[in-house]
Write a structure and sequence with these properties.
Elements: E1 5-16, E2 19-30, E3 34-38, H1 45-52, E4 60-65, E5 68-69, H2 70-73, E6 77-80, H3 94-99, H4 103-106, H5 114-126, H6 142-154, E7 160-164, H7 172-187, E8 191-195, H8 202-205, E9 208-213, E10 215-221, H9 222-225, H10 228-235
Parallel strand pairs: 3-8, 3-9, 6-7, 7-8
Antiparallel strand pairs: 1-2, 1-4, 4-5, 9-10
Helix pairs in contact: 5-6
Length: 245
């Protein structure tokens, strides 16, 4: 049976000051995969996600989410941004941040009620952060902050999750907790797309991978395309990584 397509990207080109950051990207992401997007610094990995979400406007190409434009499917998508792009000094509690994930369904005028608060507390429990619900986000460690943002995404109960370097700057315990949650999302039929930099963990964490370096180098199941050929094409001839063939 053919897999349903969650995200379809056609001829996507993005440029900053006339310099292409992504060039003519064709990419289909099947429903229900846990996919890593890998490539060197400046390869356009974060730009790819931001283009899908309409945060960055491409100069050419189109993106559909389950066959329709993102604007019409916004409620099906959750996004965990890079930690560095968040104002952590903003005076708000962990619970309030997670409750923000319910605004997509509520709209900005309605306030979160009993059901939303229950869902937010459950999400905090899933990521092991329930005891910190009243803590100001500025007082949390980097790993704890990342868990809070993951909880905010979980409470959206989306179909597709985009995560920009969710393991950046977190300890080993948090990394393990996050990947376990991502695998549970995949098990539940969700699609998870992760910008990832640690090549050694790709075979253990992911079942699908996209190699990117301004252009798409390769995409597909990890067992088929995560090999030295594609690593060399993506990172350059001097790149060495030991892979269990």
């Amino acid at each position: 049976m053919e897999q349903e397509i969650a995200v379809a990207i056609d001829d996507l080109t993005v440029a900053y000051n006339y310099k292409p950051v992504l060039w003519d990207i064709d990419l289909t992401i099947p429903k229900g995969v846990l996919m890593a997007v890998v490539g060197p610094n400046g390869a356009g990995k974060s730009t790819l996600i931001k283009s899908v979400l309409g945060i960055i406007k491409p100069i050419a190409g189109s993106v559909t989410i389950f066959g329709k434009p993102y604007k019409k499917q916004r409620q099906l998508v959750a996004y965990v941004p890079q930690k560095g792009s968040v104002d952590w000094d903003f005076p708000t509690t962990a619970l309030d941040v997670v409750l923000m994930g319910t605004y997509g369904t509520l709209g900005w005028i309605k306030r979160p009620g009993k059901n939303e608060k229950k869902a937010a507390l459950e999400a905090l429990e899933k990521v092991g952060m329930l005891p910190f619900k009243s803590r100001q986000i500025s007082q949390l460690s980097g790993g704890q902050q990342q868990r809070i943002f993951l909880a905010r995404a979980l409470v959206q109960n989306a179909e597709i999750y985009f995560m920009d370097e969710p393991f950046q700057g977190v300890d080993a315990t948090t990394e393990k907790a996050i990947i376990n949650i991502l695998k549970l999302l995949r098990k539940a039929g969700k699609t998870v797309v992760v910008v990832h930099h640690d090549l050694q963990t790709v075979p253990e964490y992911f079942d699908w991978v996209t190699f990117l370096n301004v252009k798409k180098i390769a995409t597909g199941p990890v067992k088929d395309i995560f090999n030295n050929d594609n690593l060399i094409k993506t990172y350059g001839i001097n790149y060495q990584v030991s892979i269990q063939e």
